[in-house]
Amino acid sequence: MNKYMIYLDTKRCIGCHGCEVHCKTNKNLPFGPILCEIDHKPLKSIKGVPKTEFSFRSCYQCDDPYCAEICPVGALTKREDGIVMLDQEKCIGCMACAGACPWGVPQFNPLTGKMVKCDFCVDRVDEGLKPACVTKCTTHALTFVTLTEV
Ligand code: SF4
Ligand code: SF4
Ligand code: SF4
């Protein structure tokens, strides 16, 4: 059962991509893998003013994750609070999880030869902190909530 989620207030988001940058910094990721992403969807302009709708994409921490089912070494597991973990020690970088995930969420890290995915910055969560992307959003468009608060 998922306990957490990240919610994007689309009225507050300005599409600055700061969340993506801080995610990568926190996870020490090189050029290439992106664990959270802001999508821009152009809308009909109003009185000549262009409008854009933003959405936030990351791991959905699925209840029955296909990524975990296919992993040949059991590197992907779901915690009791719903966070789907990827064990860096066990991962052999075969990329089967990326193919099995309907959204292609797991990403290859060329520095380590292993996969990475969003885990809500689990080290921070375990210390009572919020994920890096949420903390650094300058417009407070991102909120980290427990599902009972939604
Ligand atoms: S940091 Fe905040 S305002 Fe900037 S793109 Fe991310 S969610 Fe939107
Ligand atoms: S990586 Fe894909 S399949 Fe696995 S929990 Fe995340 S969204 Fe679900
Ligand atoms: S890349 Fe790693 S986590 Fe993904 S299926 Fe292969 S061993 Fe498992």
Could you explain the architecture of this structure?
The chain has 150 residues and is an alpha+beta fold. It has a single domain (4-149), classed as Alpha-Beta Plaits (2-Layer Sandwich), CATH 3.30.70. The chain has helices at residues 18-27, 66-70, 96-100, 122-126, 132-136, and strands spanning 4-8, 37-46, 49-57, 76-78, 84-86, 107-109, 114-116, 142-146. The protein is globular and about 55 Å long. The protein starts with a strand and ends with a strand.
Note the main sheet. Answer: 2 strands, antiparallel
The amount of helix comes to 10-25%
**CATH T-level fold name:** Alpha-Beta Plaits
Poorly predicted ranges (pLDDT <50, ≥5 residues)? none
**Rg of Cα set:** 16 Å
Q: State the order of secondary-structure elements, H for helix, E for strand.
A: EHEEHEEHEEHHE
Spatial sequence of strands, sheet with the most strands: 1-8
Query: What is the 3D shape?
Result: globular
The distinct bound ligands, ions and cofactors come out as: iron/sulfur cluster
Gap between N and C termini, in Å?
15 Å
Beta strand count: 8
Per DSSP, what share of the residues sits in E-state strands of 2 or more residues?
25-35%
CATH class: Alpha Beta
CATH architecture: 2-Layer Sandwich
Mean pLDDT: 94
> What is the count of DSSP helices, taking H or I runs of 4+ residues?
5
Structural class by sheet pairing and helices:
alpha+beta
Domain unit count = 1
